Amino acid sequence: MTPYDNNIILNHNFTEGLNSWHHNCCEAFLVPAGVESYVVVTNRKECWQGLEQDITNRVSIGSTYRVSAYVGVSGAVGVSSDVQATLRLEYRDSSTTYVFIGRKSVSKDCCEKLEGTFSLSSKPDRVVFYLEGPLPGVDLLIKSVVVTCSSSITCGNSGSQSISSGEGIILNSIFEDGMNNWSGGGCKILLHDSMEDGKVRPVFGNVFARATERTHTWNGIQQEITGRVLRKLAYEVLATVRLYASNVTSSAVRATLWVQMADLREEYIGIATVQTTDKEWSQLQGKFLLNGFPSKVIIYLEGPPPGTDILLNTLTVKRAAKVLQSPPPVIENVDFGINIITNTNLNNDTNGWFPLGNCTLTVAIGSPLIIPPAARDSLGAHPQLSGRYLLVGNRTETWMGPAQIITHKVKVYLTYQVSAWVRIGKAASGAQNVNVALDVDGQWVNGGQVEINDDNKWHEICGSFRIEKEAAKVKVYVQGPAPGVDLMVAALQIFRVDRRARFDHLRRETDKIRKRDVILRISGSESFHGTAVNVRQVQNSFPFGSCISRANIDNEEYRDFFLRNFNWAVFGNELKWYKDADELLDFCMRNNVHVRGHCIFREVEDVVQPLVCDLDKNDLSIAIKARLTSLLTRYKGKFKHYDVNNEMMHGSFYQDRLGKETLASMFKAANEIDPSALLFVNDYHVEDGRDARSCPEKYIDHILQLQEHEAPVGGIGIQGHIDCPIGTIVRHALNKLRILRLPIC
Fold this sequence. Notes:
By secondary structure, this protein is an alpha+beta fold. It contains 10 helices and 36 strands.
């Protein structure tokens, strides 16, 4: 059998002239030369113009196809020109999409081999393969095209594939056939039926594998699964793992996917992590999905420190069951804005309250008479408070404070707002955190947090929470100051928030603030009486962005959804290295999407690269300058914004080593290299009341300190990671930040 026997391209080497081929908005002719015949595509006025063939009835869902084409260029060519293979997928009820297959840089009058792969996760109404790419005026030369099914699953013309839902993707999954199909990634692999005089035995089957002589954390047992996994399908991974070492008793074991694309780009996909020990087997479970067109895929285990062996009893990978969408919860008879806390105003002494731990509760007078601002924004007009508060004394642990059981008052699927006045006693030394917390069947839930630096002021605490399943017991309590510090709590309220009403309010505000009258003046005709005029918005001027990654944009559905809904983008981690960032930036610029550079540095030590952490003071200063120069010179004028040093409210890596003035120096150096970009601070939990470290007041103080050191701070970044957003709390925080008169995004 030759490679052409299952070629789905008709007349692949043009022995029948241009039969089965179509030239797309250009001209084409055959240069006959026997088996060396080729087609010239000429009079091209656009890059996308070329030669195409309809292959709709010859491709199947789920199969992987390998493309090989011999191509060249001629005419007004510079040093070289790119030729690209593309699929056009046409749908009757939605927009046409395009799938990149492969690209080859071709020199003039040279014949080069263009290769790539593709697969379909759904069946379009029409599938067209075509070759395109050179600049207008450059002729495209095509000698032959071969498209064959390369997956191990049988290819057919039925338009559907039957893919095993069992354990067939991993071969020899419980080592019945020894170590066949397995290999060691930078280490040795051995097979055992038991270890430690029978203390370590397999849970499944008769044997288990051992990855030993590991010198790096990424070393481990692995298996290549190329051709057995399909793109845009979810897979479940289940592994039984354990440790074996003389000096490590517990460590994380990770399952990871290494993927190499047709263009040799590499990607690492984290699947799952489990904390396991040397005493018992643990189950590692996770999911993964491939977006791109892989040419090679390897699954492997990694994670423990060098010298620690990884034991593997079984590893399975199977198609994930389709998750059926749950119907929306039925929520009836809900009283929004009603406080569920008993005896909030303490009119009945401490009835309804109890001390958590051996602390004491007494009622005192002297708290504020108005409800806290964030609650007032949600509830509107409210009766005057009583002025009474709970005084919590004899506290010997930070968690001690006033508590209530609210199990039967909390409803699932509803968002609750938390509000209270809090204060601390005079014995405090330094800043103290106060937290409203919930104990939901033993799980801690954050209801809001505030940091207090003085003992003579009342402070607002606000937050939110949402419970997703019925709980046997729900307890709310206030905690936080150091042992020995008295805690004062007044007007604790927890009430349900009507999010639907909030959206209605926002629509009214939008109509009032953002909409304007438009006058159409129509000329050129005698009468327009009775003429219908339709106005359709085709572009949104309001900046609305999303985080994207290089892997995401290989998924056509994801890519189309992003482009339909967003006009700004920020990269996940791609800006650490430049190849993926280059491709993402090119994608955004081609689609008129503005980009924010995230980020130049990160201040949280846990996410700073180990090689940077090991640098001495002098080398670290040199590395900072090199990073600034390399990044901002490469992308000068292309990023509208930069997050200069991410999450400075939650870390202090650079300032601890080089001094606080280093933070301002980063801004000044970035501005000197690329003065066109706005430079942002960026942090999380600024707007939801859940983290005292990054509350608006501390964020404002941080920005002012940077500005005092002449840092050109151009904007305030808020990451927006909010679990249970409350509109009034968010607005309350943003209004505080407004004092700086800087853009917020």
